[in-house]
Specification:
two-stranded antiparallel ribbon, alpha/beta, three-stranded parallel sheet
Length: about 140
């Protein structure tokens, strides 16, 4: 099935009728540079789309939501390793801001509707696969 997460009614219907024991949400408009070119795409996907997922989990009484956040929420923090209790109040890109807002939205749904959520702050990884070839996660 192909579904755009900004199609909120369809997202809610799929999650509600699916009777899932958890939802793992990894969809997002990724990349910092593109957020400067097309900020509305980011707002649609990363904010409205994430709200569709949250609402689907609420109406579908999903026991646990796991979602992708980003290491970008740490902003200009130079301390490594990063820890979840570090300040993330000053994002330096629209992409990072949308991912931080996702974390706050998930926290609100957890508090309001007793929906357990886990946000995974993925880091950008690059490694060599040989001459002129690289792998990216």
């Amino acid at each position: 099935m192909r579904l755009d997460i900004i199609e909120r009614e369809k997202v809610i219907e799929v999650i509600t009728l699916g009777k899932f024991d958890r939802v793992i949400h990894l969809a997002a408009q990724a990349g910092v540079r593109y957020s400067l070119k097309d900020p509305f795409t980011y707002a649609d996907s990363n904010l409205t789309g994430f709200l569709s997922i949250l609402e689907g989990c609420y109406y579908g009484q999903i026991p646990h939501l796991i979602y992708a956040s980003s290491s970008s929420v740490y902003g200009t923090n130079n301390q490594f390793p990063c820890f979840t209790n570090m300040s993330v109040d000053h994002p330096i890109s629209l992409y990072a801001a949308t991912k931080r807002v996702n974390e706050l939205m998930a926290h609100a749904y957890s508090h309001l509707y007793n929906l357990p959520t886990t946000g995974l702050r993925f880091f950008y990884c690059l490694w060599s696969l040989g001459p002129a070839r690289y792998g990216i996660i």
